[in-house]
Amino acid sequence: MPVKVVFECEVCGNRPDPETQVSLEQQLLDLRCGEYLDAAPGGWLTWHGRGIYGPNRYACGEHRGELKATLRTHYGNLGWHPWARGPHPWAGRRGTDKARRLKRTMTSTFGSPGS
Ligand SMILES: [Zn+2]
Question: Which of 37, 55, 57, 63 could form a disulfide with 47 if both were Cys (CB 3.0 to 4.6 A apart)?
């Protein structure tokens, strides 16, 4: 049975809309350390902590500024990561990108009927 991960804005306790929920779940599989990531379409901000930067933390579109302020207070002296400035687009998991490129290559090689 699939496990549903519950994301919650740590400022207001809001839950993401279904589409943003999917984005957040996908990003969860992408192991990062000390990075912000935006989650579309709800404009959520995830802090991918781990290690010295603590656990992952989440904020909704309205409270992403508050989350950054909190992190900079807690971890601001540990390195530049908490000071990163947005936007923080997510390009997808690295492995997935590679697979997508490979698929494109295959299509251009085999997929031209009539040529
Ligand atoms: Zn919020």
Answer: 57
What spacing in Å lies between the alpha carbon of 72 and ligand 1's midpoint?
A: 18
**Contacts of the segment 59-64: beta carbons below 8 A, 24+ positions apart:** 59/9, 59/10, 59/11, 60/9, 60/11, 60/12, 60/14, 60/16, 62/9, 62/11, 62/12, 63/9, 63/10, 63/11, 63/12
Whole-model pTM: value is 0.74
Q: Exposed/middle/buried for 26, CB within 10 Å: 0-12, 13-18, 19+?
A: middle
Give distance in angstroms: CA of 30 to centre of ligand 1. 23
Distances in Å between the alpha carbon of 32 and those of 2, 35, 58, 92?
Answer: 23, 7, 14, 12
